Amino acid sequence: MGLARTYAIGLVGLDGHLIEVEAHIAPGLPGFTLIGLPDAVLYEARDRVRAAVINSGLKWPDRRMTVSLSPASLHKRGSSFDLALACAILGAGGAVPKSALADLVLVGELGLDGRVRSVPGVLPAVLAAVRAGMKRVVVRRPTEPRPSWCRMRAFPTSAVFRSW
Amino acid sequence: MAAKDIVGRWGEDVAARHLVAAGLVILDRNWRCSAGEIDIIARDGRTLVFCEVKTRRGHGYGTPFEAVTVAKARRQRRLAAEWLEVAGLSVPDVRFDVVGVLCPRRGGPQVEHRQGVI
Q1: B91: Cβ–Cβ under 8 A, 6 or more apart, which residues?
Q2: Interface pTM (ipTM) of the complex?
């Protein structure tokens, strides 16, 4: 039972928008509602995130969960929200400290086994995070070296749940 | 009687005892009509409670609460309307609860009562 909040980036072409990801766990029957104009791929995140959390050895909350992507009227697409959705839910369920998520931008797709997969458009996403004033971004461990102009404090990761 | 029915019946007895211990008054059990069955109908103060009981012997097929799907929840509401009509009652407050009963191979049953979930 609880509420947690973290951030993701929604890409529209090459323009990134900072998206607030809020998760609420309420008493009730198990269920996972995702609102805030997700496209089909993003909607499927419900199944990816569930499997990723369970296969990382963590408890999937057996409650009524609502995740909201804000601004709600902006169309959101793709799988790069997976990591933020998973962490917001884990925060709301108390498995991850809420304070650790509150100023974090998370970008990554999840495998069913809990691996973090890279997504296209990490650079414009990180750029959008910087422009929005965010200081910490979690991305998939890059296969290529980071461009020297990118002065972000980066947190490369391959399996975020295990690093906590 | 099939094994699953015996387990289900036992779970309903456990759930009924749990509700009584929690201060509810049981009005009816296993009420049937053509649309289906309501496991327990009880009174909690001024509130009429329609209760679905789900019993599981393990987590192999998910938690008891996961077994209550959207379709089953909808049917509960229809059945409740029918019960109210047959009983000729008009009550101000109605609530839909689910009681999950887990009976592990060792140890006593674990009962969880979730109120107002449907």
Answers
A1: B46, B47, B48, B84
A2: 0.74
Whether residues B66 and A27 touch (CB distance < 8 A) is answered with no
pLDDT at residue A10 in the model: 97
Chain A residues near residue B65 by CB distance under 8 angstroms: 29-30, 62
What kind and span of H or E run contains B79? helix B70-87
Q: What is the pLDDT of residues A39-51, one digit of tens each?
A: 999 999 999 999 9
A111: closest CA of chain B, how far (Å): 22
Answer yes or no: are the C-beta atoms of B48 and B91 closer than 8 Å: yes
pLDDT digits (tens, 9 = 90+) for A60-69: 998 999 999 9
* Residue that has been written with the tokens 């925060």 in this structure: A91
What the block records as the tokens of B67 is 């077994």
Tell me which chain B residues have a C-beta less than 8 angstroms from the C-beta of A33: none
Chain A: residue nearest B117 by CA?
Answer: A28
pLDDT in tens, B20-31: 999 999 999 999
- Going from the C-alpha of A68 to that of each of A4, A22, B23, B68, B89, the distances in angstroms are 11, 5, 38, 24, 40
Provide the sign of the torsion angle of the four alpha carbons B68, B72, B78, B82, taken in this order: negative
| Chain A interface test: which of B70, B75, B117 (most A C-beta within 10 Å) | B117
Instruction: Find chain A residues with C-beta within 8 A of B77's C-beta.
Output: none
Put simply, the answer to whether A30 touches B114 (Cβ < 8 Å) is: no
| Cα–Cα distance, A90 to A64 (Å, whole number) | 14
